[in-house]
Amino acid sequence: MIRSCTASDVPEMFAIVNDAAQAYKGVIPSDRWHEPYMPLAELREQINQGVEFWGYEENHRLVGVMGMQSVRDVSLIRHAYVKTAMRQHGIGGKLLDYLLTRIKGRILVGTWQAANWAVRFYEKHGFQLVSEAEKDRLLRTYWRIPQRQIETSVVLICDRPPASSGKE
Q: What rounded mean pLDDT belongs to the chain?
């Protein structure tokens, strides 16, 4: 079952993010890795900045989370993580498909360039990599991340039909 995450889910979300992020250890640049990967205060700050998290629940426990955030004229997919033990069961795809039904217009995803599994996942779901120059522009426009992260990331884009204006 997919549901909106609440404040009471934050400890479980924190555990999922940091468990799943272990996949990045030794893959992303070592100067971008730290323990925990996402501190609890940062997760709370992301929520305060408008990242709306959705969770995939199995047996009354969250096993995956994915966020979306409206920024100016686009929607960002943020912080997509599935518990390590639950990977390869389609949970990430179900979460993404669910969020895509809720979003109209341009959707952007930023991820680590070295995380080729993440890039393939988004491409499988209709996203396309943008050029290096466009990536730099988009990351500077829609994200608040350090220059080093811009240098080591990619951006993928998906355009959804805009919401109907009601005028046919």
A: 94
Q: Which CATH architecture has domain 2-159?
A: 3-Layer(aba) Sandwich (3.40)
Q: What is the pLDDT of residues 28-71, one digit of tens each?
A: 999 999 999 999 999 999 999 999 999 999 999 999 999 999 99
pLDDT higher than threshold 70 for residue 153: yes
Which of helix, strand or coil describes residue 83? Answer: coil
Name the nearest CA neighbour of 102 among 54, 63, 65, 57.
54
Question: Is there a contact between 64 and 56 (Cβ–Cβ < 8 Å)?
Answer: yes
H-assigned helices in 86-146: 91-102, 116-124, 132-142
Q: Using a CB cutoff of 8 Å and minimum separation of 24, what contacts does 139-147 make?
A: 139/110, 141/72, 142/71, 142/72, 142/74, 142/76, 142/108, 143/76, 143/110, 145/110
SS3 content of the chain, % helix, strand, coil (to 5): 40, 25, 30
pTM for the model: 0.92
Domain ranges of the chain: 2-159
Task: Kindly provide the residue ranges of all beta strands, DSSP E only, lying in the chain, ordered along the sequence.
Answer: 2-4, 52-58, 61-71, 74-82, 106-112, 128-129, 153-159
